[in-house]
Amino acid sequence: MRQPGDRAPAPAPLSLVQDLANTWDIEAGRDSLRTAEDLTAFCATRGMTVTCTEDDVAAARALREGLRDACQAHTGADLPPPVRQALTRLFERAPLTVAFDDAGGARPAPAHGLAGADVLVAEVGRVVLDAVAAGTWPRLKACAAHGCRWVYYDHSPGGRSRWCTMDICGARAKMRAYRERKRPG
Question: Where is average pLDDT lowest: 9-18, 85-94, 167-176?
């Protein structure tokens, strides 16, 4: 998925979370998860073989918005309790297990028997846990511009980026702040 300002995307596999969150482009008013077929295709392009229903679309959208809010919290905003509760309910339906390989290595893996959006939720859960362990999870952020909220990966050395791109959202915010300071008061 192309990023604003040609910003580099999140590293794999964290790009799954970034791409899911950005299936709703707020500024353009485009939602690429409108139908069960859209969700099935999204999952397929990310290696998940799943058939989705319209109920799954609602769950995937709830996951998407919860993840966007969690990424917004990485910029210093609070994650509202209702969002935390909604995410908890989604992840409770999609448990992870531990998978071992021939060399004795272990990793989280979606539990067997999951279907529909629960497959996506479990895979997102696995990716988030891996990102937490790697220390990359807090760098996945939502743009501070209210009309944007694009989820981007903060590659800056200090990890203090606030906007998806300085050229657009950052410049707008700075111009608004400038106008506020210059307003006669």
Answer: 167-176
Check if the beta carbon of residue 162 is closer than 8 Å to that of residue 144: yes
CA distance 150 to 141: 8
> Cα 24 to chain center, whole Å?
11
H helices of 8-160, in order, are 15-21, 36-45, 54-73, 81-92, 117-134
Look at residue 178 in the predicted model and tell me its pLDDT.
56
Pull the structure tokens for residue 45: 């392009």
Which tens digits make up the pLDDT trace of 126-165? 999 999 999 999 999 999 887 899 999 999 998 888 777 7
**Could you give the angle at which helices 36-45 and 54-73 cross, rounded to 10 degrees?**
60
The 10 Å Cβ neighbour count of residue 14 is: 20
- C-beta atoms surrounding 118 within 10 Å: 20
Among candidate residues 154, 95, 92, the one with its CA nearest the CA of residue 126? 95
Q: Is 173 helix (H, G, I), strand (E, B) or coil?
A: helix
Query: Are residues 43 and 50 in contact, defined by beta-carbon separation less than 8 angstroms?
Result: yes
Hey, is 100 helix, strand or coil? strand
Token code pair at residue 70: 């969690």
**Across 106-124, average pLDDT:** 96
C-beta atoms surrounding 6 within 10 Å = 8
Q: Shortest CA distance to 68 belongs to which of 87, 51, 53?
A: 87
